[in-house]
Write a structure and sequence with these properties.
CATH class: Mainly Alpha
Shape: globular
Strand content: under 5%
Order of helices and strands: HHEEHHHHHHHHHH
Distance between the termini: 44 Å
Number of domains: 1
CATH topology: MetI-like fold
CATH architecture: Orthogonal Bundle
Oligomer: single chain
């Protein structure tokens, strides 16, 4: 054997042995899980498309921009529900996003360590309360409270200047749905944002503070850039839940088939109209129109998540699908 044989021999890749039974079973389980998830997604989409097809053929894409909901004359339009979904989801995210993010910052940056875990645990407990319980709280407590305080104040002080706040204080309506949904979203935003902020290296924050930075400067210059992707992800996940929330919104939004003109109006979201009107179905076309609303909500939610996926990757400087 020459002196050149040893480096050549060590450079050769090791021979792969036969794949054992455990490896084959593990690989099969992983592949089966992946295909099962894809099959479920495809199956849900197929069921929605098949169920909505009669309405899609009859109304086409005009269903998205048409108003009116008359089961007797089979006149259906989803525009009021789409607008209602956007108003409720965006309004709830504005309220919950600010409160949730500031709470997460307070827990991770300001509170002592011995108090962080108990406070976080208590806040996260709110996420385990069933949505129907939130709906009862909103209907029996929150709506009357808003009717006698906040809605009166908005009507008196902002109503003369802004038509968006000039409405009848019913109690139940878009405002109640926004507030109760915001309460439901706060624990989710706090939990996910806190997890992102916890991953910020402690040395970087302490170094910024040691150089004379204030808590705000340390957060904005060090913590936020590091945790930005996680915080954006927390908001996107919360937005997805806001778009699809059903029971609590259905119990507090009232009910109406026309376009909203102010924050105190009653109406429906895409999810709540399906929940409230499904038992009233009197024809195949009526049922297909409701399933069409479900298909719109499905596409809207998937679209928001795809947009968020690319946004997070762009913020992280990642291109394509490779990490």
């Amino acid at each position: 054997m020459t002196s050149t044989d040893a480096p050549l021999r060590t450079a050769l890749p090791p021979k792969k042995g036969p794949i054992g039974l455990g490896d084959r079973v593990f690989r099969a389980l992983i592949m089966a899980s992946v295909w099962t998830v894809l099959a479920i997604f495809t199956g849900v989409l197929a069921v929605l498309v098949i169920g909505a097809w009669p309405a899609m053929k009859r109304y086409g894409l005009g269903f998205l921009v048409r108003t009116g909901w008359d089961p007797v004359h089979l006149v259906f339009g989803a525009l009021p529900f789409i607008v209602g979904t956007v108003i409720v989801a965006v309004g709830a995210m504005i309220l919950a996003g600010g409160v949730g993010l500031l709470t997460a910052i307070c827990i991770t940056e300001l509170l002592p360590k011995w108090l962080q875990e108990p406070i976080s645990y208590l806040i996260e407990l709110l996420a385990f309360i069933p949505s129907v319980v939130y709906g009862l709280f909103g209907l029996l407590v929150l709506a009357p409270l808003l009717q006698s305080t906040v809605e009166i104040w908005l009507l008196v002080h902002l109503g003369p200047r802004f038509a968006f706040f000039n409405g009848s204080p019913y109690g139940v309506g878009y405002l109640s749905a926004i507030v109760i949904l915001a309460i439901m979203l706060v624990p989710l935003i706090v939990s996910l944002s806190r997890e992102a902020l916890i991953l910020v290296p402690r040395e970087q924050k302490e170094g910024a503070l040691a150089l004379g930075a204030t808590h705000w400067e340390a957060f904005w210059g060090v913590s936020f850039p590091f945790a930005r992707n996680g915080i954006v992800g927390a908001f996107v996940i919360s937005l997805g839940r806001a778009l699809g929330e059903t029971m609590a919104v259905a119990m507090t939004i009232g009910g109406g088939f026309r376009l909203p003109t102010n924050i105190m109006d009653q109406g429906y979201t895409l999810a709540s109209v399906i929940a409230n009107e499904f038992n009233e179905v009197s024809s195949e076309t009526y049922l297909s129109a409701l399933i069409y609303c479900g298909l719109i909500l499905f596409v809207l939610t998937v679209g928001v998540n795809i947009f968020a996926y690319y946004t997070v990757r762009k913020l992280a400087g990642i291109r394509g699908f490779s990490a």
